[in-house]
Amino acid sequence: MARLSTRPIGVLVSALALAGMSVGVAAADHQKVDGSITSDGDTCSWTGADTSANPPETLTVDRRSVNANMTCTGGLSATLNNNPTITFDDAAGTATADRITVTVVSMGVSCEYSADGLSAQRDGNARTYTARGVTLTKSGGGFLCPGSRTADAEFVFH
User: What is the pLDDT of residues 118-141, one digit of tens each?
Assistant: First the structure.
């Protein structure tokens, strides 16, 4: 049996992981975030994900709103399995997610990935954050599931 391509799974895993992280940096009063993640030429994006508060308050992302609005290239599906808690350091311009767990399905094979302490950098004074070279590690699924994945992301909070 052939292994699944790592390219599409990496994009979706990173997208969902960073979606959880990005919730923490939502703009005042609206508690929403849009995001885009790219890995190996494929992109996953979402709009209008809900947050529990506004930065710089510690907050969580509602996985249901991320999952309901996620679209990806490459024919994949994915699910954010937890509601990540996000903390902020506005002086350093960072937002950090405690733990992210996602399930990715490609060609009928389910693979689970997780990451702890994911961090994104703020772009200037705006609530746009970027993360480069984010790594997620395989935490479940069979031998057909690729190991760790790397991706870049951008999040805009409104």
Answer: 899 999 888 888 899 988 899 999
**DSSP state string for 77-139:** EEEE-S--EEEEETTTTEEEEEEEEEEEEETTEEEEEEEEEEEEEE-TTSSEEEEEEEEEEEE
Backbone torsion region of residue 41, taken as left when φ is above 0, otherwise alpha when ψ lies between -120 and 50, otherwise beta: left
Q: Which helix (H) or strand (E) holds 21?
A: helix 6-22
**Chain mean pLDDT for the chain:** 79
Rounded to whole angstroms, the Cα distance separating 42 from 32 reads: 24
Please list the residues that pair with 85 across neighbouring strands.
60
Q: What is the pLDDT of residue 24?
A: 38
The length of the chain, given as a count of residues: 158
pLDDT top residue among 79 and 133: 133
CA–CA distance, 92 with 56 (Å, rounded to integer): 12
Residue 46 token pair: 């979402």
Helix (H) or strand (E) holding 42: strand 42-50
pTM of full prediction above 0.85: no
Q: Which residues pair with 56 in a beta bridge?
A: none
